[in-house]
Amino acid sequence: xxxxxxxxxxxxxxxxxxxxxxxxxxxxxxxxxxxxxxxxxxxxxxxxxxxxxxxxxxxxxxxxxxxxxxxxxxxxxxxxxxxxxxxxxxxxxxxx
Length: 96
Known about the structure:
By secondary structure, the protein is mainly alpha-helical. It is 51% helix and 0% strand. Helix 1 crosses helix 2 (20-57). The radius of gyration is 33 Å and the shape is elongated.
């Protein structure tokens, strides 16, 4: 059975012994864990706030003939269900 490397035993010894080095190691590991938990939560909160602000700025348009965003008139637009598409076949000469 493989034994763990000596560095693992040294870290465990530092954690178990009440020395200044052990406290520093515990503080560093605790700080890193706090950052790894806090940063995604903060970014999620900022993203949610940004999404809500963006939704508040967006305008909902009714089914009018003029777009409030672009200003173009859409009353001349023909519904897609009433449009006929003409397809013509062409022969392609292949020389290869």
